[in-house]
Amino acid sequence: MANANISSVPIGSEGPRARWKYLDNILGRSGPFTDPDWVPGETVIESLERAKLLVIGAGGLGCEILKNLALSGFKDIHVIDMDTIDVSNLNRQFLFRHADVGKYKAEVAAKFVEKRVKGVKITPYCGKIQDKDEEYYKQFAMIVCGLDSIEARRWINATLVGMVDENDEDSLKPLIDGGTEGFKGQARVILPTMTSCIECQLDMHAPRAAVPLCTLASIPRQPQHCIEWAHIIAWDEERKDITLDTDDPEHITWLFQKALKRAQEFNIEGVTYSMTQGVVKNIIPAIASTNAIVAASCCNEAFKIATSTNPFLGVPDTENYMMYTGDEGVYTYTFQHLRQPDCPVCGDDSRARPLQVNPNSTLQEFLDGLAERPEAQLKKPSIRSEEKSLYYQSPASLEEQTRPNLSKKLNELLENGEEVVISDPAFPTQFKYQLTFKE
Amino acid sequence: MADLPPPVQGPTAKEKKYDRQLRLWGATGQMALEDSHMLLINSGPGVVGIETLKNLVLPGMGNFTIQDSAIVSEADLGVNFFLEEEYIGGFRAEHTCNLLKELNPDVQGNFITEPIDSWLTQPDSLKPFTLILAIAPIRPELLARLSAHANATLIPLFYVHCVGFYSHFSVHLPSAYPIVDTHPDSETTADIRMLKPWPELLQFAKEKTSNMDTMEADDHGHIPYIAILLHHLEEWKKGHDGKVPQTYQEKTEFKTTISKAARTNNPEGGEENYDEAVAAALKSLKEPEPSSSVKEIFKVPECVLVNKESPSFWVIAHAIGLFYTKYGVLPVPGAVPDMKARSADYIQLQNVYKSKARKDVMEVLESVRFLERTTGRETVIEEKDVEQFCKNAAHIKLVRGRPFHVVQAGETIKWGERAKSIAQNLTFPDTLIPLYIAFLAFDEFVATHDKDRLSGAPKMPGETRQETDTEKVTGIAFKITDDLIKEAGTFIEEPDYTAVKERIGEFVQELVRAGGAELHNIASLTGGIVSQEIIKAITEQYIPVDNTCLFDGVKSKTEVIRI
């Protein structure tokens, strides 16, 4: 290794550390907030260079995170991303050029940063985080996430919580997570099982309320209703043999024209191609500036955790969450998000969460509702009671067998106060609810 | 209704590339960005300015120029992403400029390697620029020159520090900096005027509620909630001398009345439109009164005394002020929230609001035209600008930009009218005002220390002697604090005074620890915030920082203070 004989080189001099002159001011000097027992210098540099980090996502946040970690002195970085580069990424994903469109993000990003920052090794994996097992995640000191999907966050969170072994200090992997929308964003640090986890914080990211199907089908009022109608109803009726690809311009154009026609029938104004794309792909506005803020905040915490050069977010019983708002002046709210004792992922308490339900609603309605519940957000739930299997998404035979239950009312299937267990293929955890009937 | 235009081709290449940002600031914001030319005066390790530029080149700022006379050293490679090994010994301005240009072929980049002292003294050197970003350390006489330029030409000037785990920026905006398109939260923008209905709206409500009691269930469940609210308001007035609910008790009673009017003898056990009416009941009983900050705008001299040269904002604001004086409300914005309703009813309701909004716009426009004539204004204000202004009238904002501190060696820092409030806030345990004072002390140190006489580059505290410099800067910071307290004519009692000094001491210690170094993460984060602010200043959208922002990377917190 290039830095094996670091200890023989005085900090800040010419030689191998000349490049890190600025960083070494911080690594080599104590400050007013460093621990009195902390010894600046060689050992700190060593632990920084030894730390193996995993970055999940090589998009808007990921590009920034890779650059930041490399220039924070980390040497061994892995990155996972399954996506390829699209032209609409180029306004912020600065490691990609026009000629890279269509290539894997993780590969292009890794190569670029390795070329710019000499001495850093970046190992890309072009695929899904779910392809990897605990053995894989065990090798890292920390995981930094720059994702746009709640599902992926929940999966890695549950996996890391599940990996914690009380008798093995190394099994606890700090998870640092960033997210943005427009001029707003957040950065948070999670010490699995010790501090509030992604699942505990799910209510911070409540899903938008879905428009009822009957509005789309019979009484549209907004241009978005017409687009959703084309997307959910018209496509299935007229093109059910073609799989909808929201990246295919022909498909978007078809939906746009369908939506436009419907809007004209109802005298609704405002359907545009851009809006069609936005609704169908659930596009969240994104800019380089906000990515820079959130990614750097995440990497600042990673750096502090790896080096102890200053206190970090996420120390148990202190602040672990920074919310940033930039559309009205600049405002940050940095606070401690508390662990939820009944968290289905990290809670010690495995009792079921109480939930009031309408006994007259059908099982189907109940399951649809779970997708919108901020603390559940389950898209493909399977459900069983203490007594029986109520509905299973797979295997196909069981699905067929349990399908009739979907149209039955809850009070036909369950006793008042009965517990149900809900699972979803997207998550390694189960959700337990105790259902009590509303009067 | 006339046929809509035939579907256009898909988006252009440019719209595709900028799709994610056009959804924020739109085509007009993008045009403003493309017309801008920013000057970066780079200094120190020089990272924060380059990181700021990265976030502006990517979205397509038209033009940028980097002034920087530094030579690329090995140390640059450990902190600046836009440099490579082969450029060691070359000009930092040139190579950062070239690598930034790679990010976006639509952007023009230029560089100036001449030292700032001589370059800035040339006449018209600042003329091409629409915005200036100056990075500390910079000599006070140069910063003062930039400040005077910003004052004279009304272009925004940003001044940024980025040292170790801390950063700061101040912005000097024009003294009258108005914003129409503030992008308010969509939840705060609904303005349905239940207490100030106009005849067409009352007629609509009457029509939709005329035979409520005998309606089929499905019809009853689809009465738009606005009609329900108006119907019950009229009923209430009949029993209360023509008055709407006044007290909290009456308002609650009104809400209960609506809630009781919902039909419950159906499978759902209620009606969604009635739920919506109940939810909106209390809010709809509030007078549609503009906020005090908007009313304030109508009273400022720029608005009252419109002349030939007045920017269009003030002409329109004056006209809307007249409208407000006449009717006691702002023009109707025209948007109707989505609600449970049949398509045709909803569209009809939407048209009632749209027509009224249109009528109000025409009235304001008439005043605008009158003002144009009487003041002899040469350029005609576009109708669409008046329309946009009327739509956002409740959310317009006026920022009073002002110069920030330029620390001159040996001179006492003046806080003016801000002294009292800042001195008061100084004792709050979580405030970052002590960090601001530490940065002022940092500047005073820079103003009085040279690296060597030949290069003339300023020296930053802690570069070589951490302890002695900490002592020096702490001493300066304490003096600034005492001067501030004195100027405020106040007194901080013990133990608060000691606590304030302790906190200042800690900030200074951490600042000097860095020895003028930038940490890439803090530079990148600060570059992100500053670039957001620059985008706001250029597009004249959203609400800018007024006028100083501090970031503490130890605690991951920001604070905005008005200096």
TrEMBL record, chain A:
Residues 355-438 form the E2 binding domain. It is an enzyme of class 6 (ligase). It comes from the Eukaryota. The keyword Nucleotide-binding applies. Keywords: ATP-binding, Ligase, Nucleotide-binding, Ubl conjugation pathway. GO terms for cellular component: cytoplasm; nucleus; protein-containing complex. This is NEDD8-activating enzyme E1 catalytic subunit. SUPFAM superfamilies: Activating enzymes of the ubiquitin-like proteins. It catalyses: ATP + [NEDD8 protein] + [E1 NEDD8-activating enzyme]-L-cysteine = AMP + diphosphate + [E1 NEDD8-activating enzyme]-S-[NEDD8 protein]-yl-L-cysteine. Catalytic subunit of the dimeric E1 enzyme, which activates NEDD8. It comes from Pleomassaria siparia CBS 279.74. GO terms for biological process: protein neddylation.
From TrEMBL, chain B:
One of its GO terms (molecular function) is NEDD8 activating enzyme activity. One of its GO terms (biological process) is protein neddylation. Keywords: Ubl conjugation pathway. Pfam families: ThiF (PF00899). It comes from Pleomassaria siparia CBS 279.74. This is NEDD8-activating enzyme E1 regulatory subunit. It comes from the Eukaryota. The keyword Endoplasmic reticulum does not apply. Regulatory subunit of the dimeric UBA3-ULA1 E1 enzyme. Residues 18-557 form the THIF-type NAD/FAD binding fold domain. The keyword Glycoprotein does not apply. Pathway: Protein modification; protein neddylation. Belongs to the ubiquitin-activating E1 family. ULA1 subfamily. One of its GO terms (cellular component) is cytoplasm. SUPFAM superfamilies: Activating enzymes of the ubiquitin-like proteins.
